[in-house]
């Protein structure tokens, strides 16, 4: 494409590409923009060095290879802030520049946004389901080694409290947390058999009584008894990772209270997802450890966003064959809300035309400048700011929007035509 | 865990950890070991440098930080070769060394194996469904940016022919292939409207008549007509990305044949998975372009393998609480096959004990030495050798094993006890 467009001169035409989702995955009620910060960082580093050029020069003409060797995005990007909600058709990113410089960004932009948005959306549902209880992301083992780090970041964006992934602590400042594994308890086995108390003693000696002991390696009731015998009633927490978590949480709570450990927290883990988290809402659980379901997007591992050319030299363009129609033209978007803050509608309208009349509702503009002339605009939100933005966004949803069941988008998207 | 185990001395006990899958995901009939080569490479680089130590020194004692700064795996690993089939309970990796040096590898090993095995297993089903037709992996946009590169590699391992991910071409030598996008055709639009012929002319001028033209941007029948008018009947291929692909493939084949382009290939793409690939088996499709479904594991984005401590100082250990029992002890495995080559049973038995009697069947040992004293053994299979191994493995399955429907593992796994 690039080679052909450079040869016939069309590569230099001014274009707008738009990233958007045709639909929300899996009957979700809302989407969460995730990964924008990572994408802007990656964009600054997106160059073709000698190793990359060596590969493409095997099949590309010299002009194209030279162009790639000098590549640096010099265009503009506007878009939804990271942590913003989105709905079908929301113009999440608007990327403007020459065809050549914009088309090259498709995989970079979509890979990051599709991945991080999918994880953030799943995680946000778990945060709602947990209703204020703590959530620890523990899924690194079930995701690609580098994707896992981005998953920890996206889960934190969505409201998780901590991660067991130390690289996410290092790279993004996500708070770290973790408990021990069964292997640590099993390690304390000798010819006389298992010695759970020795394992607990070792952990308490190293980490203090504020630590969380894993009590389900052998027998949960015995494990709790041993844990309190070793650590005393000031023990920080116990983790249960198997069995009927609701039944065990109640039983362990009673047992802990009887032993005077009334402040010892109960952490549960083991194939939890938003549905099982919600199902445990009535039980005395303090913290959920979530693994596989959050790093795999709980049934929707990709957000399914696309990156489409919508305008060429000021002319709106769109694909016209069946089923996959896109809406041409560079767009803007705003969200209408009642005075109570509850959102009502997403309005997408042509860029450069007048803002549609909000009809008595409050209009919030959604697209902010991110890149100008290839340079990231100062003042992009931090991860914490994006986390706060999402927390506020979730509160603004109509109540149906927080339902876990499959259904329609929480608010409709209205497209205002160019001829309006 | 590490800190506590170093403090009480248990960190230095000799242990075996085993990576295995309790079950196959999503009713699959077989698993595919993927990522072993990547894992061995990552293991060689797995160190804690100053940036990592700076993070952990905030909460770890000095002894542990010093130990981490000197970390280098010095133990042994045996396991199933990359590209080997596996079944529930197959001891895919056996990792031996001190507790401390082995426990630290859990996330590294599982992240890579769980990810790559999930993608390879999904891709292998697509390869079977395609029944000899070509498959191009095009899913990078729907996966994390680095995971995407591993996905291309895993799809190639499973029998895909090529990838559109150039970094996978560079990093792993996967053959590259691709076609143009709708944006390239839409780019050729001016005040007089779209000019599909100009787009095709540009592509053919740059890439020759052997190229594949995307014909469904506007009207497929017109697109095919224009494509042949521009490129002539020697055109390499046309791609259809929307509509009822089976209906269009037949219609386009007839049209191409009528235009004398009898050798022009038909490439189809657009939300294909193993089921839709199989459903197109009777249609004149030459190549499938597969995206989202392969990079998301087609419903099973992680293989769900676990990494469990199974032996401490020669004593088998196992978790005993409900539902998650593991089988203690270091293990070996062999696969029994009939004289025809069709496999019958996976046999897992205690390492160091005599090989179970194959009872007239052919016994194939499954575990090979991978690491000795922390050093990767020479002669590990190349990606191409692993690809061949899997191709042979798929042929060895009983016919039910290749069914796409959900069901039981293709062959049972028999566990031979230690007291045998």
TrEMBL record, chains A, B:
GO cellular component terms, semicolon-separated: cytosol
Record key words, sorted: Glycosyltransferase, Ligase, Phosphoprotein, Pyridine nucleotide biosynthesis, Transferase
GO biological process: one example: NAD+ biosynthetic process via the salvage pathway
Domain Nicotinate/nicotinamide phosphoribosyltransferase span(s) in chain numbering: 134-321
Organism (species): Rhodococcus spelaei
Domain of life: Bacteria
Pfam families: NAPRTase (PF04095), NAPRTase_N (PF17767)
Name of the top EC class for this enzyme: ligase
EC number, UniProt record: 6.3.4.21
Family, similarity comment: Belongs to the NAPRTase family.
Post-translational events: Transiently phosphorylated on a His residue during the reaction cycle. Phosphorylation strongly increases the affinity for substrates and increases the rate of nicotinate D-ribonucleotide production. Dephosphorylation regenerates the low-affinity form of the enzyme, leading to product release.
Record flagged with keyword Cell cycle: no
Ranges of residues in domain Nicotinate phosphoribosyltransferase N-terminal: 1-114
Pathway assigned to this chain's UniProt record: Cofactor biosynthesis; NAD(+) biosynthesis; nicotinate D-ribonucleotide from nicotinate: step 1/1
Recorded catalytic activity of this chain's protein: 5-phospho-alpha-D-ribose 1-diphosphate + nicotinate + ATP + H2O = nicotinate beta-D-ribonucleotide + ADP + phosphate + diphosphate
Protein name from the UniProt record: Nicotinate phosphoribosyltransferase
GO MF term set: glycosyltransferase activity; nicotinate phosphoribosyltransferase activity
Described function: Catalyzes the first step in the biosynthesis of NAD from nicotinic acid, the ATP-dependent synthesis of beta-nicotinate D-ribonucleotide from nicotinate and 5-phospho-D-ribose 1-phosphate.
């Amino acid at each position: 494409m690039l080679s052909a467009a450079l040869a016939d001169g069309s590569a230099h035409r001014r274009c707008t590409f738009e990233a958007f989702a045709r639909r929300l995955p899996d009957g979700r009620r809302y989407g969460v923009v995730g990964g924008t910060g990572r994408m802007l960082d990656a964009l600054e580093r997106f160059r073709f060095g000698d190793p990359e050029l060596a590969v493409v020069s095997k099949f590309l003409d010299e002009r194209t290879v030279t162009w790639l060797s000098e590549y640096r995005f010099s265009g503009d990007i506007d878009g939804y802030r990271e942590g913003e909600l989105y709905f079908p058709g929301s113009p999440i990113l608007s990327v403007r520049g020459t065809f050549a410089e914009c088309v090259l960004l498709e995989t970079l932009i979509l890979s990051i946004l599709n991945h991080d948005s999918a994880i953030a959306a799943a995680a946000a549902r778990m945060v709602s389901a947990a209703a204020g209880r703590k959530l620890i992301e523990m899924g690194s083992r079930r995701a690609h080694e580098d994707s896992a780090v981005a998953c920890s970041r996206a889960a934190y964006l969505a409201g998780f409290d901590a991660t067991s992934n130390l690289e996410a602590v290092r790279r993004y400042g996500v708070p770290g947390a973790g408990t021990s594994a069964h292997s640590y308890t099993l390690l304390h086995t000798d010819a006389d058999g298992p010695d759970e108390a020795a394992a607990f003693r070792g952990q308490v000696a190293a980490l203090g009584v504020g630590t969380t002991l894993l009590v389900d390696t052998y027998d949960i009731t015995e494990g709790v008894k041993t844990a309190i015998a070793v650590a005393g009633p000031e023990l920080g927490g116990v983790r249960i990772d198997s069995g009927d978590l609701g039944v065990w949480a109640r039983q362990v709570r009673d047992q802990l209270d009887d032993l005077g450990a009334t402040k010892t927290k109960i952490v549960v883990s083991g194939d939890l997802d938003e549905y099982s988290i919600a199902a445990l809402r009535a039980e005395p659980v303090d913290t959920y450890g979530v693994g596989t379901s959050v790093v795999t997007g709980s049934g929707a591992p990709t957000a399914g966003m696309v990156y489409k050319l919508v305008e060429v030299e000021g002319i709106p363009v769109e694909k016209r064959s069946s089923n996959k129609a896109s809406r041409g033209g560079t767009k803007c978007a705003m969200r209408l809300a009642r005075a109570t803050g509850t959102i009502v509608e997403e309005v997408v309208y042509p860029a450069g035309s007048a803002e549609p009349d909000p009809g008595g509702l409050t209009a919030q503009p959604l697209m902010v400048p991110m890149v100008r002339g290839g340079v990231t605009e100062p003042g992009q939100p931090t991860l914490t700011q994006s986390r706060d933005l999402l927390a506020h966004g979730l509160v603004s949803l109509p109540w149906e929007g927080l339902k876990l069941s499959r259904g329609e988008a929480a608010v409709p998207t209205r497209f205002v035509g160019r001829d309006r």
